[in-house]
Automatic annotation (TrEMBL):
SUPFAM superfamilies: P-loop containing nucleoside triphosphate hydrolases. Keywords: ATP-binding, Nucleotide-binding. The keyword Nucleotide-binding applies. Residues 24-395 form the AAA+ ATPase domain. Coiled coil: none annotated. This is ATP-binding protein. The keyword ATP-binding applies. One of its GO terms (molecular function) is ATP binding. It comes from Georhizobium profundi.
Length: 507
């Protein structure tokens, strides 16, 4: 179905039409200096296409939240946890609701992390929900910078990766990227290069004019025209717009941004110098008293805090305690310590959000819980925590892990990366107990992701390593065999429901 969006008028006073279906397949890049009318152009595009396609807007300044009153967009405040944003993004794709991710008020690092999390949530949606979505990113140079800046490197990498996925791989998932930037030179080239449609506005710097001319296939001597473009005037090119560079004037919009361009207003009558001093230095009767804020000390590094929490008892005291304990008492103390560690790990596994938190966050949570429970002995290292937490996720305690069968499973699992060991152990447990092969949803939760496709690829990874053999029975159910263990799982539906890892642990 062809739907033409009226963007305004061409230089010949003809309607400037944009093929919406072609735009969804080819993406759009908008470039122009501050004040050239980029936000006005995006608003016109969003208003005209709102009845036809779902929209998601990454809004760093909160300018597009006014679309909610007129067109029913849901405003999502980005000041949320990562898991909340992932769940909201998944529901947005599932229910096909247009939304505005409002990043206003967040620091640059947090804006990049929130935008990356939200875009990844849209990108990782289940295949059944790959409906067309127009994803508009204003000030895209903030989220896909061409070079490292003052922001944290992990935030920059996450944001750049999400933007690259949107522009390079989003089309097959129904995501059509529309990005706007003040300067092409500040935007990562691999993000800008994926757009096939261009709307170039007023530009002054030579390097940006040259890049704009190259993208439009124009002679560099013609690049001077970009300096003469007025506000709201753009040059269009692309399969969804025009096969040749076409000047267009963007039409009017129905909604307005909360922030507007500054306009001159007359100054009030100037008071006498003495009156001016009184106005400035004398507090008014209704003026609130401003309390002096003490300068807070700089925050302590997380590594220092963890090191302090992980400190064992003083060496002298520890040696005295060991001398006083008999061999039987030492074994009892070690058993009690293992029992306490298993209890702490079980409590963390019971948290429904634990499967989707990073190992660093879980380790910090464990250290705090161990401190509260007064866990005796030296602190558990991160490597030991990862191994024992992988066992706890699938209900294997330290005593069970010491058996001959499980010792072989652990040896095989230790040849794999830490983050996939829990999935391997989960499937191995099903094989040793003769249980049905876990579903993709159960594997995904053990892996700490919402994407069943990622979890499914782990089974292929295990098979490539020669650890498993995956086959299907005549009913189409999946069976995973372990040649080294001499056992296999029972038949299980790959698309079955997600099993509760806590209940599996209890079993």
């Amino acid at each position: 179905m062809r739907v033409d969006i009226d963007m305004g008028e061409t230089g010949e006073n003809k309607p400037a039409l944009l093929d919406l279906e072609e735009l969804l397949a080819t993406r759009l890049l908008v470039q122009g200096n501050s004040g050239s009318g980029k936000s006005h152009l995006l608003r016109r595009l969003l208003e005209q296409s709102a009845p036809w396609v779902q929209q998601c807007i990454i809004d760093p300044e909160g300018d597009f939240v006014t679309l909610a009153d007129r067109f029913g967009h849901v405003v999502v405040d980005a000041a949320r946890s990562e898991q909340e944003l992932l769940r909201i993004a998944a529901r947005i794709r599932q229910h096909r609701v247009s939304c505005v991710l409002n990043l206003e008020g967040l620091e640059a690092d947090q804006q990049m992390r929130s935008a990356a999390t939200f875009l990844n949530g849209l990108f990782d949606a289940e295949r059944d929900y790959w409906y067309p979505v127009l994803v508009v990113v204003d000030e895209a140079q903030l989220f896909a910078p061409a070079a490292a800046g003052d922001v944290a490197e992990d935030a920059r990498r996450a944001s750049l990766g999400a933007m690259t996925n949107l522009m390079c791989r989003g089309r097959k998932r129904g995501l059509a990227g529309v990005i706007a930037t003040q300067r092409l030179a500040k935007l990562a080239k691999n993000v800008a290069a994926e757009a096939s449609n261009f709307l170039m506005g007023r530009t002054f710097l030579d390097i940006d004019m040259a890049r704009a001319a190259d993208l439009l296939g124009m002679d560099r001597r013609q690049a001077e025209m970009f300096r003469d473009l007025k506000r709201g005037k753009f040059v269009a090119l692309g399969p969804a717009l025009s096969r040749r560079p076409l000047p267009i004037a963007i039409g009017r919009v129905e909604t307005e941004a909360r922030s507007t361009s500054p306009k001159l207003t007359p100054l009030p009558d100037a008071p006498a110098p003495e009156e001016a001093r009184d106005l400035i230095f004398t507090p008014g009767p209704a003026e609130p008293v401003v309390m002096t804020r003490r300068t807070a000390p700089p925050p302590r590094p997380t590594t220092d805090i963890l090191a302090e929490l992980a400190k064992a008892a003083p060496a002298g005291a520890q040696e005295e305690d060991e001398e006083e304990l008999s061999e039987a008492e030492t074994e009892t103390a070690a058993f009690e310590r293992d029992r306490m560690i298993d209890g702490l790990l079980t409590a963390i596994v019971a948290d429904p959000d634990a499967a989707f938190r990073s190992d660093g966050e879980l380790y910090q949570d464990f250290l705090v819980r161990a401190r509260i429970a007064r866990l005796p002995g030296p602190a558990v290292t991160l490597a030991v925590f990862r191994r024992r937490f992988a066992l706890a996720r699938v209900g294997i305690d330290a005593e069970m892990a010491a058996s001959d069968d499980w010792r072989q499973v652990i040896n095989l699992a230790e040849s794999l990366p830490d983050d996939v060991q829990a999935v391997f152990i989960l499937v191995a447990k099903a094989a040793l107990t003769g249980a049905a092969c876990p579903s993709d949803a159960t594997l995904a939760r053990a892996y700490g992701t919402h994407s069943t496709r990622r979890a499914r690829r782990l089974l292929d990874y295990f098979e490539e390593r020669g650890l498993t053999v995956v086959r299907t029975d005549f009913a189409g159910k999946r069976i995973v065999a372990f040649p080294d263990l001499g056992c296999e799982t029972g038949p299980g539906a790959a698309d079955g429901p997600e099993a509760n890892l806590v209940s599996l642990s209890a079993a």
